[in-house]
Write a structure and sequence with these properties.
By secondary structure, this protein is of the alpha/beta class. The protein is built from ten helices and eleven strands.
């Protein structure tokens, strides 16, 4: 029994589709089928019911699946430990970053890549809910996002900084001189808002509901960088965290004059799970950037 055979079995069990499993494993469908046939021959049992329309696990397949998953996780855990013993000279770091956190983390990514050239990165920019699901599934080592109102019992969250939801405008915009802005005043301008599901939009919608105010955006985007560029060189107004635009010198962040606009920047890791040394070092670097300038003295002793 080989590890690649177990990985093929688990992928087919997850997708229940041989073509999709082969694509995700970057192998041909015939190679995948041959690998599973050898595994079934060695075990003396069929693992899948197959017909022209459906794929389903047999009783033997259902029995093998949890053990196969544990075996794969154990092998990956062993590889992680060995890579850590190499002193950050090799390995892979899987990081999930919400769209609003993109600018905050970019300096750290560049610094880490230069300092540790042997570490490879897999970086996923998705919604917080999607990233938390990936973290729970052990597909990520750490997630960077603002604090979520949803409780995840298997995830630990650590606050890094305090932030606030702001109206963001060009330095030449008529609102740029204001110290605060009300929702009513905001509604009078052309709005380009983050898309639903993004953390800034989730908080904004919650505030609008509590104040019984409705905003009508003319533009909606699910990416922060082009949203900031649109605002920086135009007359539109967006609503984002103040940290999201700190490196965008052409913009001004004006706090919303409302209750409940506070945000907390966090990183999230799995509880009671081994954390790679590369993940620890990345988090330390993030805290010590000029954007945050924090020290995590005791977190990873």
């Amino acid at each position: 029994m080989e590890l690649r055979q177990l990985k093929a079995f688990v992928k087919v069990a997850d997708t229940l589709n041989f073509s999709q499993a082969a694509r995700e494993l970057y192998v041909t469908q015939s190679a995948l089928s041959q690998s599973l046939k050898k595994l079934e021959d060695e075990l003396g049992s069929s693992l899948f019911h197959r017909d022209s329309h459906n794929v389903a696990l047999t009783e033997a397949g259902e029995t093998l699946l949890p053990q196969a998953i544990k075996t794969i996780e154990a092998s990956e855990h062993c590889l992680t430990r060995l890579n850590d013993l190499a002193g950050l000279k090799r390995g892979t770091l899987n990081i999930g970053i919400t769209h609003s956190y993109r600018i905050i983390s970019s300096d750290t990514l560049n610094q880490f890549i230069q300092q540790f050239p042997g570490i490879n990165f897999n970086i996923y920019y998705k919604s917080c809910e999607e990233l938390m699901g990936m973290l729970e599934a052990k597909l990520l080592d750490v997630v960077l996002s603002y604090k979520t109102s949803i409780e995840y019992p298997d995830i630990e969250s650590y606050n890094l900084f305090e932030d606030k939801l702001c109206a963001v405008v060009s330095r030449h915009h008529p609102l740029s001189h204001k110290e605060k802005i009300s929702l009513e005043e905001l509604s009078k301008y052309t709005l380009a808002l983050p898309a639903e599901g993004m953390q800034a939009r989730i908080l904004l919608d919650r505030i609008l509901d509590s104040y019984h105010v409705k905003l009508e955006p003319r533009i909606v985007m699910n990416e922060v960088t082009p949203l900031l560029s649109l605002v920086a060189f135009g007359k539109a107004v967006t609503v984002l965290s103040s940290q999201s635009c700190r490196t965008k010198e052409e913009t001004v962040a004006i706090p919303l004059d409302v209750e409940g606009a506070e945000m907390e920047g966090c990183f999230h890791i799995l509880k009671n799970s081994y954390l790679k040394n590369s993940a620890k070092e990345f988090i330390h670097m993030l805290c010590e950037t000029h954007l945050l300038n924090l020290k995590l003295e005791s977190l990873f002793k």
